[in-house]
Amino acid sequence: MEDARAREACPRVIGVTRHRGWIAAVLGALVLLGIGVFVWMPPSGPAPTPTPAPSAAPAAPRPILQAVGPKLTSNQTSQPLALYGENLVPGLRLVLGAPLSREVPLTVVDARHGYARLPPDLKLPEGTFQADVQLSLAATGPRPTGTARLTLVNDAAFPDLMAMALSPDGRTLFVASPPTDTVFALDVESGRVEAMAVGDGPSALATWKDASGHPWLGVAHQYGAELWLYALDAPERKARVVPAPSGAWGLEVDGAKGVAFVAEHLRDTVHALALEDGREKWSAAVDPNPRAMARWNGLLAVGSLQTGQVVLLRQDDGRELAPVVPKPGVPIVGGTTEAFSAQVMGGKAPRALVASDRLKRLFMSSLGPNVGPNAQRMEVSANSGVAVLDLDRQEVVRHRGFGAGVTEGLALDDRAGLLYAADVGLGQVRVLDAKALVKSDAAAREAVLQTLPVLAPEGTPWIRPVEDLGTKGRAGLELHSGPRSLALSPDGRTLYVLNRFTGTVAVVDASEARAGKARVTRQWPVVDVRSREQRRLGQVLYFSDVGRTGMSCDACHIEGHTGGVFFEKTRPMRIYRSTTALGSRDTPPYFTPASTRSIAETVETVGGRNRYHNPDPLPSEVEALALYTSLLPTAPNPYRGEDGAPLETVTLPDGRAGHPVKGLALFEGKARCMACHPTPLFTLDQDPSTRGQYQDVGTPIALPLRLEQQQLVAGAAPPSLVGTWDVWPLLTSATAGYTVQEDRLVVGSRFPLRTLLETPGLTHGAAQELTAEERDDLLAYLLTL
Q1: Using a CB cutoff of 8 Å and minimum separation of 24, what contacts does 458-466 make?
Q2: How far is Cα 105 from Cα 319, in angstroms, rounded to an integer?
Q3: Contact call for residues 353 and 313 (beta carbons, < 8 A)
Q4: Which is nearest to 164 in space by CA: 178, 179, 148, 146?
Q5: Residue 444: helix, strand or coil by DSSP?
Q6: Beta carbons within 10 angstroms of residue 110's beta carbon
Q7: Which residues in the chain are classed under CATH 2.60.40.10?
Q8: What element of type H or E holds 436?
Q9: Are strands 565-568 and 494-499 parallel, antiparallel or unpaired?
Q10: pLDDT at residue number 557
């Protein structure tokens, strides 16, 4: 038994012995080779205390979304957004809640600033004016927290007929609706309407014949950097697209020379483009917000909506000549401002321009010469009408005022010597003797041959009961039509009237217009606008002159935007700039000093005042007008990239360059801007707890024009800086932009932000402590807001 166990154990002992021998041999060989070997021996003492495992790294902080700016935007086109929060990191996504339910990338600049761009195809449910969308963040890492609210206006479903052009053969009218990205082709004989494919925001139209006699249609765009060209004698309407500046508001074409002139408001320039390929022949800086243009005798006249001047450019090279603007002493014939010619301080926005080769004059529609401070304290200087301009002498010859309404589109029958003027505020078309307008003041007084009402189609909803209109000196039911643009047939016998509020084109028999017998024969529907009734009624109220006083919301705030300056507001009575209403919903109170605390209170107060309380607005009118005004968003910022973030380098309007990200650091640090202009809307008025603070930061109180007739009261509310890139002039006093020369206002700077930062003696933040390079960076950042 023992022998058996001994034999069983023997192989194990031998194996172990052999294994140990092999290890010893290997170790010996390693020693011979000179390789050190450490041999571990079990410790003889007590076991050591185990080393604790390293602690886990602290969890990354959760990204927090706190605010978005702007808070109001549109689905009309792609829109950039700025997001503010804490612990923001690359890789985050912006979540658009119901009813959009989408995600878009977020570009993070630093832990507190991110940017995104809304896509251009955001659709809202049919029939909705707006949607309140909840924003949040999504990430693959720590779960973000926080939300923000964004109001998205359903402009993509709000047709708005803004421009019209007639084909050279007189058979087809082309009508543009920028919000819906549509140009309609209307056959004037049958009334058949065809929707044409165009780019993003068709905003200006022109028709012409080229040097070979072929007819063309050109479509410039507000958001797309394209000029669409249609050969109208081709078998099908298919556009040839050439590059062009975006932001277009005006288009004028010299067909014989193959040149298109495009006026754009993003950089406030006019570009001369070769129609063949879009090649730029020249570009010229002009006054802010150029729109109306007309060609005459080698010159291009360009009207500025914000300065009230007409800039003259040479068509061949773009060289600028002296501007044409009303000056003190300009004759005013008719209307409420006739006795105040000597107190004229400048012009008001040119809304349309048309040239007469036979009379060698230019006709301009506007609200008349801008009357400044006067001893009589007359503050209602709106006197809608038509002015005569002599471009050879570069002067305004006279203004024929109508005393009521808002004159918009013009059409000239040069052979017959007849000028037609559309009044969007009253719903009328005036027929004028063009020769009489040019001849003399006395003849101009008798120049109105006929005032033709353009009635709205049957079934149009009214702003108030029928019996309230057309009585006691008030405008009639025709105010619901909204004549915007005019086009005259080649033989001059038919006038076409584009009605903005009803979506129709009125056909006018003008064969007996000189005898005062023009008449509306029919109306062709272009697009149905009645499904958005309340907002459409608000639009009618915004543009109409119910009390026939010459005043409307649009008279001072053109298309919701700025309109230069005016002398009024009772107390304190001085020269004020006309502020923008775009995006103003979130920044009450309004006026200086504050007098209204909401959009609704403002439209009720101002609406009644504009009409001289004849009559006061009904609650339903207040509701509709407040809705329309509250849905006016700021324009998309052109200084943002495709991802919505600021461009790395921005070329400033005066040719210098700056870096927005560096400017952001200065804005929040050394320049000390945040105290009065905090994010996200960059005004203290964005928050009820800080609203209505009127401060004196050393900026000029008033323009130094007849100061003895102005009431000088220090202090102003810090305005929102969102959209400042498109605002001229700046400051409540308008002293950043305008200056005084002799006894009138002139444009001192087309880049008022530079004036604001560099005027000596101002205590506006710490701008005076910045270097020249730092000021450029700060300006670059301000342009991206």
Answers
A1: 459/530, 460/502, 460/530, 461/530, 461/533, 461/536, 461/537, 463/537, 463/540, 463/541, 463/544, 463/546, 463/621, 463/624, 464/615, 464/618, 464/620, 464/621
A2: 44
A3: no
A4: 178
A5: helix
A6: 11
A7: 64-156
A8: helix 434-439
A9: unpaired
A10: 95
- Which residues are bridge partners to 187 per DSSP? 172
Q: Which two tokens stand for residue 140?
A: 């693959």
Whether the per-residue pLDDT at 115 is higher than 90: the answer is: yes
pLDDT confidence of residue 595: 84
Q: What is the pLDDT of residues 656-698, one digit of tens each?
A: 999 999 999 999 999 999 999 999 999 999 999 999 888 888 8
The answer to whether 402 and 336 have CB atoms below 8 angstroms apart is no
Residues of the chain with CATH 2.130.10.10: 158-285
pLDDT tens readout for residues 456-505: 999 999 999 999 999 999 999 999 999 999 999 999 999 999 999 999 99
What is the SS3 assignment for 132? Answer: strand
> Quick check: 250 and 219 in contact, CB under 8 A?
no
Q: Residue 273 forms beta bridges with which residues?
A: 260, 280
pLDDT grade, residue 374 (50/70/90)? Answer: very high
CA 351 to chain centre: 16
Number of neighbouring beta carbons within 10 Å of residue 210? 16
- May I ask the CATH architecture of the domain 158-285? 7 Propeller (2.130)
Reported as a single tens digit per residue, the pLDDT across 27-47 is: 333 233 333 332 333 444 455
**What's CA 740's distance to the chain center, in Å?**
28
The residue type of 525 is P
Segment 718-725 shows an average pLDDT of: 95
Beta strands in 561-719 (DSSP E): 565-568, 574-577, 650-651, 657-658
The b-or-e profile of 659-697 (16+ CB within 10 A means b, else e) is bbbbbbbbbbebbebeebbbbbbbbbbbeeeebeeeeee
pLDDT at 417: 98
Torsion of CA 169, 171, 172, 173, to 10 degrees: 90
* Type of residue at 725: W
| Helices and strands per DSSP (H, E), number in the chain | 10, 45
State whether residue 597 is helix, strand or coil: coil
| Token pair in block for residue 467 | 């019996």
Backbone angles phi, psi at 64, to 5 degrees: -125, 125
Structure tokens at 604: 């009720």
Question: What are the distances in angstroms from CA 42 to CA 26, 46, 213?
Answer: 21, 11, 106
pTM reported for the whole predicted model = 0.91
**Tokens at 638, concatenated:** 């052109």
Q: What is the DSSP string of 332-383?
A: EESSTTGGGGGGEEE-----EEEEETTTTEEEEEES-SEE---TT-------
CATH class of 64-156: mainly beta
In whole angstroms, give the CA distance from residue 307 to residue 301. 14
Distance of alpha carbon 392 from the chain centroid = 33
What does residue 472 show for φ and ψ, rounded to 5 degrees?
Answer: 55, 35
Residue 423 · residue 437 · CB < 8 Å: no
Q: Compute the CA torsion angle 76, 79, 85, 86 (nearest 10 deg).
A: 140
Q: Which helix (H) or strand (E) holds 772?
A: helix 772-783
Question: Could you give the CA distance from residue 373 to residue 574 in angstroms, rounded to a whole number?
Answer: 7
